[in-house]
Amino acid sequence: MAEKLAPEKRHSFVHNGQKVFEWDQTLEEVNVYINLPPNVHPKQFYCKIQSKHVEVGIKGNPPYLNHDLASPVKTDSSFWTLEDDIMHITLQKRDKGQAWASPILGQGQLDSYSTDLEQKRLMLQRFQEENPGFDFSQAQFSGNCPDPRTFMGGIRTD
């Protein structure tokens, strides 16, 4: 049932008509997807993930991305992989349940409607996680959706 509440599509950050990256999120992580340029050996790519910063590039060149993150991450469980000409960066949220409007601070922010949809989806994921015998995939909110991170005392970590 939880897979019914997984992200349905990726958000795109486009700058000057070029897609910079795509991303999605769950309660616990933010996933960033970057299409890799052709004819560059995989060992030349690098990604440095810090608590509040990410740097991505090709060794010996200026970084492709070198920005602060929208929120802090757990560096010990954040990582990156290369597969099928895509760099996949998994950022483990320090604050589980926090709805991110973008992975990069001040870059490609979701509009308020999309942010609200993300918050609602994450709230339903939280309900599903806390009540595994129920199916929340068709549930809807009337009015404002509460913050999934803080609603009713916050997310349990036990």
TrEMBL record:
GO biological process, one term: protein folding
Gene Ontology molecular function: unfolded protein binding
PROSITE patterns reported in the protein's UniProt record: CS
Start and end residues of each CS domain: 16-104
Pfam assignment, any one: CS
Entries under InterPro entries matching the protein: CS_dom (IPR007052), HSP20-like_chaperone (IPR008978), NudC_fam (IPR037898)
One Gene Ontology term, aspect cellular component: cytoplasm
CDD domains: p23_NUDC_like (cd06467)
Name the UniProt record assigns to this protein: CS domain-containing protein
Organism: Ficus carica
